[in-house]
Amino acid sequence: MFAELRTLIAVSRWGTFSRAGERVGLTQAAVSGQMKRLEEQLGFSLFERTGRSARLNVAGLRTVERARAILASLEALGDPEECSAAGLGTLRIGAISSLQAPLLARALGPLSRAYPGLALQVVPGLGLNLLDQVDSGELDLAVMIRPPFDLPAELAWDLLARDRYSLIAPAALASEDWRGVLTAQPFLRYDRLSFGGRQVDRFIRSLPFPVTLSIEVPVQSMVTMVESGLGVALVPLAEERQPLPPGVVALPLPGVDLARETGVVRPRGHRLSAVIDNLVEILREVSAAP
């Protein structure tokens, strides 16, 4: 029944069977089947169905709240006994891969020293998956790129940094205009399954000139790819705080408002809100440090 309860929460979160299915990796028909099985197991209807639409009824809304509590209790079973005794438990932190080493890793030490009775668990993933895990209660927070859509009212966003993109290219092109470079050179695509990749993809499609699309790679691999002569890439300036290799330069994009916002998404009213507040402040200090 746990899978059905997670899907029910997704339906409540996203409003329709089809949108919920996109978030949990199911077809609309599979979501509908799970909801029917759940209703049969519970013995009452969860939805008001009119034609092709289905809306949670009063019993369904009540069941969603109980489902959240059940799944939260299930997750709490994995807390180490000694941490539970200290009243803290485990803080489950989701993080996209490009932020784990440069940002999160430097913040966990100070957090552990501030809360010695707190166990920490870091879960990697893509932004969309991490967002769903925070929403369902599987994660307590996620460090990620801001989504291109509004968050539900139950979740809060804490901004950490806003980093402008620049075009990294071979050093021989240092004196060239970024538009000419982007037109003439193969473009290394940012992973389009990520929020940052979708943002860059929208920008490239908005340009009034053609771009030759090349390899699609994670953002943390792009400097190496450019250094190897495989093309040029758009990356946030935060990725360049470490010195670029001698054969790579960063070309600014004057007049272009293209920036990546990184931050923390977390549930409102969380039992460890004070701990998460502290972590956010530590992450902000780390983000501002050279």
Automatic annotation (TrEMBL):
A single GO cellular-component term from the record reads: protein-DNA complex
SUPFAM superfamilies given in the database record: Periplasmic binding protein-like II, Winged helix' DNA-binding domain
Q: Which UniProt keywords apply?
A: DNA-binding, Transcription, Transcription regulation
Q: Which GO terms label this protein's molecular function in UniProt?
A: DNA binding; DNA-binding transcription factor activity
- Give a single Pfam family match: HTH_1
The highest taxon in the source lineage is: Bacteria
**Keyword Transcription regulation among UniProt keywords:** yes
HTH lysR-type domain location is: 1-57
What family does the entry list? Belongs to the LysR transcriptional regulatory family.
Q: Know the name of this protein? A: LysR family transcriptional regulator
The taxonomic lineage of its organism, from the top, reads: Bacteria, Pseudomonadati, Pseudomonadota, Alphaproteobacteria, Sphingomonadales
